[in-house]
Amino acid sequence: MRYRFVLVLAGLMLGLWVAPVFGHAADEGGVANAATEVKQAIAFLEGTKDIEAAEMKIKDAMNAEGSEDLNKDKLNQALGTLKKQDVETAKKLLAESLGKDPQTAEELTLRSSYTGSALNNGLLLAACVLILIGGTVVFKVKASH
Amino acid sequence: MSQDKGLKAWFRQRFPLATFGYEVPPHANTFLFSLGGITMISVVILVVTGIILAQFYSPNPETANQSIRILLTQYRMGSFIRGLHAWAAQIAVISLLLHLLRVLFYGSYKKPREINWLIGVVLFVLMVGLFFTGTVIKWDQEGFEALSHTIAVSKLLGPLGFYLSPTFISNISLLGKFFTLHLSLLPILLMVVLVIHLYLIKMLKVSPLPWEPSNLNPGKHTFVQHFYKLIGYFFVVLGLIFILSVLFPPELGPVPVKGVEASKPPWLFMGIFSIENWAGIPGLVWGSLVVFALLILVPVIDRGKSQLFRDRKAVVSLYTIICLVMAGLTLYAYVTKPKQHIGMGSEGKNIPIADNTKDIESQKGQPPVVKGINESLGIVNQLKTAVANKDAVNAKTLAAKLDEALDPIKKDIKAKDPDLVNDLKSDDLIDLFKDASPDFAKANSLLDSIQKALEKAKDMFTGATGSMATKDGMAGKLSAAMDLVDQIKDAVKDKDMTKASSKAGDLDKALDPLKDDLKSKDPSLVKDLDTDSLMDMLKDASPDIAKINSMLDAMDKALDKAKDMYAK
């Protein structure tokens, strides 16, 4: 029975290995307008940091429908900064090319950080107190005799 | 007699906790056997923080991501509460996996605990489901792509995938359904199955260790001690989550864009992601099914009576290999690019997302009424999509948004052509979508007439070619310039020099084409519109605020005077 199971498992593994044959092919889904191409470029830079894909999207945007509504100077600057591998600046430039403020643009990831404020430090202090209390309880609980 | 008096006695009589004082083996109170309890602690934190977060969340594709942004930027503790929820989820899943591995390697699924193992697998699947739906509902690029994968899987499953299909209860968005799953169905199922799991642990008792027991920890060990330790772990976990939330607050990705696969899933799904990269959606489905099948079949694979390690070497080795393979697939996923194989074209096209393609650049120099008309036309397009998808919930929100956008411009439109305003029937639209089963055909017809009226109004205000070279065009551009001056004043008041500089640059671009015409009418006006000097002053390391404000006031007066000139 165990051998049969191993055979079945091996068969499944083999099936997975050849499954690329049945892999779902890319579906083009139509042509995007210029603003969408720029947003896709930002998505690549925010997500997988795929500079090559982002550059392609920016170049597509320059020739796509609606490109006259974009700031092409900013797009060219973005291409330049991507060549220097400066992804952060490129993202801001791409947001600006859409007429958005990089500080508030929804096309960019919203990142918070530790600011060292009184509230943050208070919460860290509270955390230390909680861990101390918890640790004391865990180590103090012992078997009864 | 003294035992029956006092607060302790009062409490003991009403909460007979002594029933929990049953004996447990010494190893039951160790850390490894507390992992399940730590998972439960994390779930409690998730429920509490989740209830708070739900108050601020909008389960609508148009506004979901934005509602989270508002929570993070406008509420002082917003980021912290969200951080607690996100990190509690991570700890819940990590402790759950460790608990599962502990049970697996220790053989704690052996007779008579096989059914409890299966119940545990169900709990694992429910927790994975909660983690997945939680990823989707934040509605950033990662969440959107996760949902698109779900739709692709539902297509592959055919009739079995009906719940995950956008066409099932089509007037409710998939995002809304996932929110319902995350908030109600999955947590309720989790609680019910958890109660059964805990009951069986109590009845079947804690499983023995997979080696000969030693007497290193003598004394009476009871469940009460386990309970007290869990309280201790609660404080430790809470403290840890506090620290993580403050030092490493979770990010929120961008509003999603269709047409690309530009993100990777959370770490829990990376192993399956590798398989999907090789074998497409079928690989994702089959890979998940194989993992699930392996978990379900564990009591069948390891049927031997002995729980001891020394008698289960082959099986333990097999588990180790499988774990290493999954770990390897997970690490591999981090170094590979996602392939664009689900296309997002057909899977993604029916998922509405926020259409925030407002181009501030292209709207510069336009009077407020034209901006309002453009905004309204944008909303009409979104409404038409919602109506085409029979998405009544979305359509209702958009109808209210359209009404808000039309309100301030109706007066200007009425001044030019009173009949046009009669076609801007946003109130009728709102009434239509109040109905549980709205008449979508009527909605379409209303939207067509609103669209025609708005386009006619736009032509009236901009001219047929959209040219702004008319008297009205100059007035519009000067109004826009005055708006920019106000924005610079506000930025200076807030001491936001970066924003002020940026707006000054915009003002410079807006005024450049107008200066020749203004100079021909009144040369003294141009003297007060010295945007170059303004920009230089704003870039200064220690800007002279009083001087800048005085310059802005002079610009305001000059622009006002110029506007009057063109109005005559």
How do the helices and strands line up, and which of them pair or pack?
The complex is a heterodimer of chains A (145) and B (568).
Chain A (H helix, E strand, L loop, with lengths): L1 H17 L15 H13 L4 H13 L8 H12 L3 H11 L20 H23 L5
Helix pairs in contact in A: 2-3, 2-5, 3-4, 4-5
Chain B lengths: L5 H9 L20 H20 L9 H11 L3 H29 L7 H24 L3 H17 L16 H31 L18 H25 L22 H27 L1 H4 L11 H23 L9 H5 L10 H4 L4 H21 L3 H25 L1 H5 L3 H9 L5 H23 L8 H23 L3 H25 L1 H5 L3 H9 L5 H23 L1
Helix pairs in contact in B: 2-4, 2-8, 4-5, 4-8, 5-6, 5-7, 6-9, 9-11, 14-15, 14-18, 15-17, 17-18, 19-20, 19-23, 20-22
Write up what this structure looks like.
The complex is a heterodimer of chains A (145) and B (568). With 145 residues, chain A is an all-alpha fold. Chain A is elongated and about 80 Å long. Among the domains of chain A are: 34-97, no CATH class; 112-140. Helices cover 61% and strands 0% of the residues of chain A. Residues 17-30 of chain A have low confidence and may be disordered. In chain A, helix 2 (34-46) packs antiparallel against helix 3, helix 2 (34-46) runs antiparallel to helix 5 and helix 3 runs antiparallel to helix 4. Chain B is mostly helical and 568 residues long. Chain B has three domains: 26-209 and 216-261, Cytochrome Bc1 Complex, Chain C, CATH 1.20.810; 360-462, Four Helix Bundle (Hemerythrin (Met), subunit A), CATH 1.20.120; 471-567. Chain B has 23 helices and no strands. Chain B has helices spanning 6-14, 35-54, 64-74, 78-106, 114-137, 141-157, 174-204, 223-247, 270-296, 298-301, 313-335, 345-349, 360-363, 368-388, 392-416, 418-422, 426-434, 440-462, 471-493, 497-521, 523-527, 531-539, 545-567. In chain B, helix 15 packs antiparallel against helix 17 (426-434) and helix 17 packs antiparallel against helix 18. The N and C termini of chain B lie far apart (102 Å). The model of chain B is unreliable at 343-350, 354-365 and 464-470 (pLDDT under 50). At the A-B interface, helix 1, helix 2 and helix 6 of A face helix 3, helix 6, helix 8, helix 9 and helix 12 of B.
